[in-house]
């Protein structure tokens, strides 16, 4: 059966339902970790984690070790952890390692506050650091579209709450946040019976995640009270949450997970300490201190039990993290099934226009019979079959209960799209380039593999780089190559053949996409460097953007040049690359220090950059703001710090345009027209000349081209088309970036290619085959 999938961006808009995007449009102070953002956008499982347990619940360094352990456990299930906190007045959904340590080290960060709903706005306004409680974590998880939240214990009705009205805000938050909260029940310092009664009044489902209906009591597996519902597997738990979504219900659910059995023995001892701590709090009037009561009680219980309670605390939250991760994985499957199920759409054949523009080859047979010249450009990456659906507009739907539309099938995959775009642009330049582009990709020996091969041939592209993997399955509606499960068996032979194609063709340029494994990238990059072939790396996604770093690490000792000639990250991928390079200590390598020193950047460069950042990002749309993000978001700093690894960075900024950051050295610096240039903010570039090494650093912004209104059709291949056009330009003129005019023309051409694909039903617009003709007419 043919599976039909919506285009990725369409799914993103459906999933997020505008809550987070609306907040960001209002310039809400929210920073979503790139890995979390990528996971949410692509429908991967995510688990929210609170941070009050880090800032107020445990002593340092146990607090840090626990937080790191919990994130590792969530990852072990296949989910992405999103620890939520407030840092410097900004909400963080997902934390970098340094941010996690900043929160945990109470000795150097003693002013971190405990953050509930009532505290959020004031804490942000005053630029505070804070740990999020269950209630505020629920708020931000719901805002981001995260469906599962794992924590230690839920707040509730305090003892004597019938008189003091001391009831945790956690309970009310569960009535308005559609999130599954996974905990070891209610904190044992509270009145568990009244808490369950209050949850019943609020209409919050309480589910025992165990073999019985016994409701756990934090340190012990049984409280003597019963939960109204029981499940014992993550799939059923996920179905409860998914049913809430299907019915449009706005409340969450509580999944109570008993502490691991091996900690049951000390549970009664710990409970005695809890009772004593509660009595002391009443005697010392600490019970009247509001939100300070819980941290005091937990600390006192730890003292009375000589640390035994701390070990149990860690164990129970690690256990809930495991269960939470498993539930999130099952929920992601259910959400994915909703979008992948068969729809009432007519399936159309591969568009006629895909068979046009075959270059100068008169027939398919001619292409196969003629001896092929060496490829000038090799693209190694994923080839797949894309199945794209497009629903009708609301006005077309009328009162129908189904969602009719159309489904079209075309070739896809990042590497394949880039190769097609480069082939179309090069073919438009004349007969000599009709066989210049070789796509090297593993395909299955199935019907989709044959389709990929046949349709590639029909496009006029050479197919001698398509490597069949016997017994493998071709990717369908997937940007995955080696991790899709279908092509892994033949990877050794694929790498061997790919290396052979590199050494025999010796292309001017080789492009790789991030769908390749780090091991494969390392082998291919090393082969290119041995043969003097420049490498262009397309990151593909935030997480995969770092797959190139092991290859860089292996080749950092190469003289003079940076190992990778070009890369084309977007802003999120750039940030992830920079962060991961730091984590891998690449920025501590002697080679990195030598290159950075040779750049010779000083106060003038910083001043010039500051001046450039004041310019409008767009020449025709003032609402897009200025280029301040170059400085405020650290874009320029991150890019420059990556120059020892990448000689040229072409940063895709969406509707903010393109930023090129590059380093010229040796003869390239001397012979380049940039050697006679200085900073020109009017022309949107900053130039720095090192007085010691002679190196030249260039940072230039290119505003986005105007997209005619109401012409956007498809976003799936715009970035790939931009990269393909760049590759085509570099094959024709390897030094295209070395002159002001040629760089401007190259980026303008690449952006024009992206615009054409945005306005086409195909991932790569067939109009790229006449791109040079269109540009000539325009000028």
Q: CATH superfamily name of the domain at 19-335?
A: Indigoidine synthase domain
Poorly predicted regions are 1-18, 339-369, 477-490
Calculate the terminal CA-CA distance, rounded to whole Å: 49 Å
Q: Shape from CA axes?
A: elongated
CATH topology of the domain at 19-335: Indigoidine synthase fold
Rounded Rg:
29 Å
Report the mean per-residue pLDDT as an integer.
84
Report the structural category. Answer: alpha/beta
* Helix percentage range: 40-55%
What is the chains' assembly state? single chain
Number of helices, where a helix is a run of at least 4 consecutive DSSP H or I residues: 31
Quickly give the CATH architecture of the domain at 19-335. Answer: 3-Layer(aba) Sandwich
Proportion of beta-strand residues = 15-25%
InterPro entries: Carboh/pur_kinase_PfkB_CS, Indigdn_synthA-like, PfkB_dom, PsuG, Ribokinase-like
Domain Carbohydrate kinase PfkB: 385-484, 686-765
Keywords: Glycosidase, Hydrolase, Kinase, Lyase, Manganese, Metal-binding, Transferase
Pfam family, one: PfkB
């Amino acid at each position: 059966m043919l599976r039909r999938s919506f285009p990725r961006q369409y799914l993103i808009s459906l999933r997020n339902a505008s809550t987070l995007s609306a907040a960001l449009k209002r310039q809400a102070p929210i920073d979503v970790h790139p890995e979390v953002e990528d996971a949410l956008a692509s429908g991967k499982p995510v688990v929210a984690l609170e941070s009050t347990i880090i800032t107020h619940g445990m002593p340092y360094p146990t607090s840090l070790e626990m937080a790191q352990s919990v994130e590792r456990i969530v990852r072990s299930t296949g989910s992405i952890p999103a620890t939520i906190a407030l840092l410097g007045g900004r909400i963080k959904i997902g934390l970098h390692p340094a941010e996690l340590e900043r929160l945990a080290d109470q000795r150097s960060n003693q002013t971190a506050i405990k953050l509930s709903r009532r505290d959020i706005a004031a804490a942000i306004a005053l630029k505070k650091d804070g740990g999020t409680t269950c209630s505020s974590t629920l708020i931000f998880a719901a805002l981001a579209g995260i469906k599962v939240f794992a924590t230690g214990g839920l707040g509730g009705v305090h003892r004597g709450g019938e008189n003091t009205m001391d009831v945790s805000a956690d309970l009310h938050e569960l009535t308005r946040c559609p999130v599954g909260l996974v905990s070891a029940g209610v904190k044992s310092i509270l009145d568990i019976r009244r808490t369950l009664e209050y949850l019943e009044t609020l209409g919050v489902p309480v589910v025992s995640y165990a073999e019985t209906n016994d409701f756990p009591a934090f340190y012990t597996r049984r409280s003597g009270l019963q939960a109204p519902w029981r499940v014992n597997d993550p799939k059923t738990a996920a179905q409860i949450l998914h049913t809430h979504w299907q019915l449009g219900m706005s409340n969450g659910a509580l999944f109570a997970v008993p502490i691991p059995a091996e900690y049951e023995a000390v549970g009664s001892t710990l409970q005695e300490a809890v009772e004593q701590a509660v009595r002391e709090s009443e005697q010392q009037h600490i019970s009247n201190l509001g939100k300070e009561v819980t941290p005091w009680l937990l600390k006192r219980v730890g003292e009375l039990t000589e640390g035994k309670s701390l070990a149990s605390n860690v164990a129970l939250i690690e256990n809930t993290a495991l269960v939470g991760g498993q539930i999130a994985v099952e929920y992601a499957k259910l959400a994915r099934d909703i979008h992948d199920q068969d729809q009432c759409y007519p399936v159309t054949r591969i568009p006629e226009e895909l068979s046009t523009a075959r270059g100068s080859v008169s027939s398919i047979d001619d292409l196969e019979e003629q001896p092929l010249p060496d490829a000038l450009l090799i693209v190694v990456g994923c080839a797949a079959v894309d199945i794209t659906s497009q629903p009708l507009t609301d006005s077309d739907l009328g009162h129908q209960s189904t969602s009719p539309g159309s489904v079209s099938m075309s070739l896809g995959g990042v590497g394949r799209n880039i190769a097609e775009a480069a082939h179309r642009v090069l073919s438009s330049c004349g007969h000599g380039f009709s066989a210049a582009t070789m796509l090297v990709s593993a395909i299955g020996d199935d019907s989709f593999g044959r389709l990929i091969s046949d349709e590639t041939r029909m496009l006029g592209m050479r197919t001698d780089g398509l490597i069949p993997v016997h017994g493998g399955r071709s990717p369908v509606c997937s940007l995955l190559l080696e991790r899709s499960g279908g092509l892994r068996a033949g990877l050794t032979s694929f790498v061997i053949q790919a290396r052979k194609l590199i050494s025999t063709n010796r292309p001017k340029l080789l492009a790789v996409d991030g769908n390749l494994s780090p091991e494969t990238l390392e082998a291919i990059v090393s082969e290119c460097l041995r043969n003097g072939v420049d490498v262009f790396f397309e990151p593909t996604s935030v997480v995969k953007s770092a797959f190139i770093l092991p290859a860089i690490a292996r080749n950092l000792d190469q003289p003079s040049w940076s190992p990778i000639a070009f890369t084309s990250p977007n802003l999120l991928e750039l940030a992830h690359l920079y962060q991961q390079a730091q984590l891998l200590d690449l920025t501590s390598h002697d080679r990195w220090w030598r290159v950075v020193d040779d750049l010779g950047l000083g106060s003038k460069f910083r001043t010039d950059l500051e001046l450039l950042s004041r310019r409008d990002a767009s020449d025709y749309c003032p609402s897009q703001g200025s280029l301040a993000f170059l400085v405020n978001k650290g874009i320029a700093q991150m890019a420059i710090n990556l120059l020892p690894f990448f000689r040229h960075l072409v940063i895709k900024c969406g509707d903010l345009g393109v930023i090129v950051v590059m380093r010229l050295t040796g003869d390239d610096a001397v012979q380049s027209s940039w050697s006679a240039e200085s900073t020109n903010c009017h022309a949107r570039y900053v130039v720095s000349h090192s007085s010691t090494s002679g190196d030249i650093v260039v940072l230039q912004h290119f505003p986005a081209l105007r997209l005619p209104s109401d012409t956007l059709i498809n976003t799936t291949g715009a970035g790939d088309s931009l990269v393909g056009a760049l590759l085509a330009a570099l094959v024709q003129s390897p030094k295209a970036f070395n002159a002001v005019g040629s760089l401007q023309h190259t980026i303008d051409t690449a952006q024009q290619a992206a615009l054409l694909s945005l306005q086409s039903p195909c991932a790569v617009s067939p109009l790229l085959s006449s791109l040079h003709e269109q540009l000539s007419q325009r000028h």
